[in-house]
Protein backbone atom coordinates (compact mmCIF):
# COMPACT_ATOMS: atom_id res chain seq x y z
CA UNK A 1 0.00 0.00 0.00
CA UNK A 2 2.84 2.42 0.78
CA UNK A 3 4.38 1.95 -2.68
CA UNK A 4 1.03 2.57 -4.43
CA UNK A 5 0.46 5.65 -2.28
CA UNK A 6 3.91 7.01 -3.17
CA UNK A 7 3.26 6.33 -6.87
CA UNK A 8 -0.04 8.24 -6.72
CA UNK A 9 1.63 11.23 -5.06
CA UNK A 10 4.64 11.21 -7.41
CA UNK A 11 2.33 11.04 -10.43
CA UNK A 12 1.22 14.60 -9.61
CA UNK A 13 4.80 15.99 -9.70
CA UNK A 14 4.75 16.81 -13.47
CA UNK A 15 1.35 18.52 -13.06
CA UNK A 16 2.67 20.55 -10.12
CA UNK A 17 5.75 21.46 -12.16
CA UNK A 18 3.58 22.76 -15.02
CA UNK A 19 1.42 24.70 -12.53
CA UNK A 20 4.52 26.34 -11.02
CA UNK A 21 5.93 27.26 -14.45
CA UNK A 22 2.58 28.75 -15.47
CA UNK A 23 2.29 30.68 -12.19
CA UNK A 24 5.82 32.03 -12.66
CA UNK A 25 5.08 32.99 -16.28
CA UNK A 26 1.92 34.78 -15.16
CA UNK A 27 3.85 36.81 -12.57
CA UNK A 28 6.72 37.55 -14.95
CA UNK A 29 4.43 38.69 -17.75
CA UNK A 30 1.78 40.63 -15.84
CA UNK A 31 3.88 42.18 -13.07
CA UNK A 32 7.42 42.39 -14.39
CA UNK A 33 6.65 43.13 -18.04
CA UNK A 34 3.29 44.88 -18.13
CA UNK A 35 3.41 46.77 -14.81
CA UNK A 36 7.11 47.63 -14.43
CA UNK A 37 8.62 47.51 -17.94
CA UNK A 38 6.08 48.75 -20.50
CA UNK A 39 5.41 52.49 -20.28
CA UNK A 40 2.70 52.83 -22.96
CA UNK A 41 -0.78 52.40 -21.44
CA UNK A 42 -2.33 51.32 -24.75
CA UNK A 43 0.34 48.65 -25.24
CA UNK A 44 -0.18 47.41 -21.66
CA UNK A 45 -3.93 47.10 -22.15
CA UNK A 46 -3.64 45.22 -25.46
CA UNK A 47 -0.97 42.89 -24.07
CA UNK A 48 -2.93 42.20 -20.87
CA UNK A 49 -6.23 41.53 -22.66
CA UNK A 50 -4.71 39.13 -25.21
CA UNK A 51 -2.51 37.53 -22.54
CA UNK A 52 -5.44 36.88 -20.21
CA UNK A 53 -7.60 35.45 -23.01
CA UNK A 54 -4.88 32.99 -24.00
CA UNK A 55 -4.04 32.28 -20.34
CA UNK A 56 -7.66 31.50 -19.39
CA UNK A 57 -8.16 29.22 -22.39
CA UNK A 58 -4.86 27.44 -21.66
CA UNK A 59 -5.70 26.89 -17.97
CA UNK A 60 -9.29 25.84 -18.77
CA UNK A 61 -8.23 23.24 -21.35
CA UNK A 62 -5.44 21.97 -19.09
CA UNK A 63 -7.86 21.57 -16.18
CA UNK A 64 -10.45 19.79 -18.34
CA UNK A 65 -7.77 17.41 -19.64
CA UNK A 66 -6.62 16.61 -16.10
CA UNK A 67 -9.99 16.27 -14.39
CA UNK A 68 -12.13 14.62 -17.10
CA UNK A 69 -12.18 10.95 -16.17
CA UNK A 70 -11.24 8.50 -18.89
CA UNK A 71 -14.26 6.78 -20.46
CA UNK A 72 -14.51 3.12 -19.53
CA UNK A 73 -16.54 0.32 -21.15
CA UNK A 74 -20.17 0.03 -20.07
CA UNK A 75 -21.45 -2.85 -17.95
CA UNK A 76 -22.71 -4.72 -21.02
CA UNK A 77 -19.06 -5.68 -21.70
CA UNK A 78 -18.70 -7.36 -18.29
CA UNK A 79 -19.18 -11.10 -18.12
CA UNK A 80 -22.17 -12.36 -16.17
CA UNK A 81 -21.35 -13.96 -12.83
CA UNK A 82 -21.93 -17.45 -14.26
CA UNK A 83 -19.78 -16.78 -17.35
CA UNK A 84 -17.03 -15.28 -15.19
CA UNK A 85 -16.95 -18.33 -12.90
CA UNK A 86 -16.93 -20.68 -15.89
CA UNK A 87 -14.17 -18.63 -17.60
CA UNK A 88 -11.97 -18.69 -14.48
CA UNK A 89 -12.44 -22.45 -13.96
CA UNK A 90 -11.57 -23.26 -17.56
CA UNK A 91 -7.87 -23.88 -18.21
CA UNK A 92 -7.91 -24.39 -21.98
CA UNK A 93 -7.67 -21.16 -24.01
CA UNK A 94 -10.00 -22.58 -26.71
CA UNK A 95 -12.75 -23.17 -24.15
CA UNK A 96 -12.21 -19.73 -22.61
CA UNK A 97 -12.56 -18.20 -26.09
CA UNK A 98 -15.81 -20.09 -26.64
CA UNK A 99 -17.20 -18.59 -23.42
CA UNK A 100 -16.12 -15.12 -24.57
CA UNK A 101 -17.62 -15.65 -28.05
CA UNK A 102 -20.99 -16.58 -26.53
CA UNK A 103 -20.91 -13.55 -24.22
CA UNK A 104 -19.85 -11.19 -27.03
CA UNK A 105 -22.26 -12.39 -29.73
CA UNK A 106 -24.62 -9.39 -29.30
CA UNK A 107 -21.91 -6.82 -28.56
CA UNK A 108 -20.65 -4.35 -31.19
CA UNK A 109 -17.17 -5.88 -31.45
CA UNK A 110 -15.29 -6.07 -34.75
CA UNK A 111 -11.65 -6.07 -33.63
CA UNK A 112 -10.08 -9.34 -32.51
CA UNK A 113 -6.53 -10.45 -31.87
CA UNK A 114 -4.30 -11.67 -34.73
CA UNK A 115 -5.48 -15.22 -33.99
CA UNK A 116 -9.16 -14.09 -34.24
CA UNK A 117 -9.64 -14.31 -30.47
CA UNK A 118 -12.01 -12.04 -28.55
CA UNK A 119 -9.98 -9.46 -26.64
CA UNK A 120 -10.46 -9.82 -22.86
CA UNK A 121 -8.94 -7.84 -20.00
CA UNK A 122 -8.03 -10.08 -17.08
CA UNK A 123 -7.43 -7.08 -14.77
CA UNK A 124 -10.82 -5.41 -15.37
CA UNK A 125 -12.53 -8.71 -16.17
CA UNK A 126 -14.38 -7.47 -19.23
CA UNK A 127 -14.55 -8.01 -22.96
CA UNK A 128 -12.63 -5.19 -24.58
CA UNK A 129 -14.58 -3.06 -27.05
CA UNK A 130 -12.84 -1.85 -30.21
CA UNK A 131 -9.97 0.61 -29.58
CA UNK A 132 -10.13 -0.09 -25.85
CA UNK A 133 -6.86 -0.66 -24.02
CA UNK A 134 -5.86 -1.26 -20.42
CA UNK A 135 -3.80 1.52 -18.87
CA UNK A 136 -1.36 0.17 -16.32
CA UNK A 137 -0.90 3.62 -14.74
CA UNK A 138 -4.64 4.19 -14.18
CA UNK A 139 -5.36 0.44 -13.78
CA UNK A 140 -8.51 0.70 -15.89
CA UNK A 141 -9.59 -0.07 -19.46
CA UNK A 142 -9.98 3.17 -21.43
CA UNK A 143 -12.16 3.64 -24.51
CA UNK A 144 -10.37 4.94 -27.59
CA UNK A 145 -7.18 5.22 -25.55
CA UNK A 146 -4.46 7.32 -27.15
CA UNK A 147 -1.85 7.35 -24.38
CA UNK A 148 -1.28 7.96 -20.68
CA UNK A 149 0.15 11.45 -20.36
CA UNK A 150 2.27 12.11 -17.25
CA UNK A 151 1.95 15.90 -17.79
CA UNK A 152 -1.79 15.70 -17.10
CA UNK A 153 -1.63 12.56 -14.91
CA UNK A 154 -4.47 11.06 -16.91
CA UNK A 155 -5.21 8.87 -19.88
CA UNK A 156 -6.00 10.67 -23.09
CA UNK A 157 -8.90 8.91 -24.75
CA UNK A 158 -12.51 9.17 -25.83
CA UNK A 159 -13.73 11.50 -23.07
CA UNK A 160 -10.89 14.04 -22.99
CA UNK A 161 -9.16 13.84 -26.39
CA UNK A 162 -10.76 17.11 -27.52
CA UNK A 163 -9.61 18.89 -24.35
CA UNK A 164 -6.09 17.48 -24.78
CA UNK A 165 -5.84 18.81 -28.35
CA UNK A 166 -7.21 22.19 -27.19
CA UNK A 167 -4.63 22.18 -24.38
CA UNK A 168 -1.84 21.61 -26.91
CA UNK A 169 -3.15 24.35 -29.20
CA UNK A 170 -3.71 26.92 -26.43
CA UNK A 171 -0.35 26.18 -24.82
CA UNK A 172 1.32 26.78 -28.19
CA UNK A 173 -0.58 30.06 -28.68
CA UNK A 174 0.19 31.12 -25.10
CA UNK A 175 3.91 30.45 -25.51
CA UNK A 176 4.11 32.08 -28.94
CA UNK A 177 2.28 35.22 -27.75
CA UNK A 178 4.46 35.56 -24.65
CA UNK A 179 7.65 34.99 -26.66
CA UNK A 180 6.62 37.42 -29.41
CA UNK A 181 5.74 40.23 -27.01
CA UNK A 182 8.62 39.74 -24.57
CA UNK A 183 11.37 39.34 -27.19
CA UNK A 184 11.63 43.07 -27.93
CA UNK A 185 12.47 43.83 -24.28
CA UNK A 186 15.59 41.65 -24.12
UniProtKB/TrEMBL annotation:
Transmembrane segments: 12-38, 45-63, 163-183
Molecular function in Gene Ontology: protein-cysteine S-palmitoyltransferase activity
Protein name stated in the entry: Palmitoyltransferase
Organism the protein comes from: Erpornis zantholeuca
Domain of life: Eukaryota
All copies of domain Palmitoyltransferase DHHC, residue ranges: 118-186
Record's catalysed reaction(s): L-cysteinyl-[protein] + hexadecanoyl-CoA = S-hexadecanoyl-L-cysteinyl-[protein] + CoA
EC number: 2.3.1.225
Keywords associated with the record: Acyltransferase, Membrane, Transferase, Transmembrane, Transmembrane helix
Entry-linked Pfam families: DHHC (PF01529)
Subcellular location: Membrane
The keyword Transmembrane helix is annotated on this UniProt entry: yes
Bilayer topology annotation: Multi-pass membrane protein
GO cellular component: membrane
Family: Belongs to the DHHC palmitoyltransferase family.
Cross-referenced InterPro entries: Palmitoyltrfase_DHHC, PFA4/ZDH16/20/ERF2-like
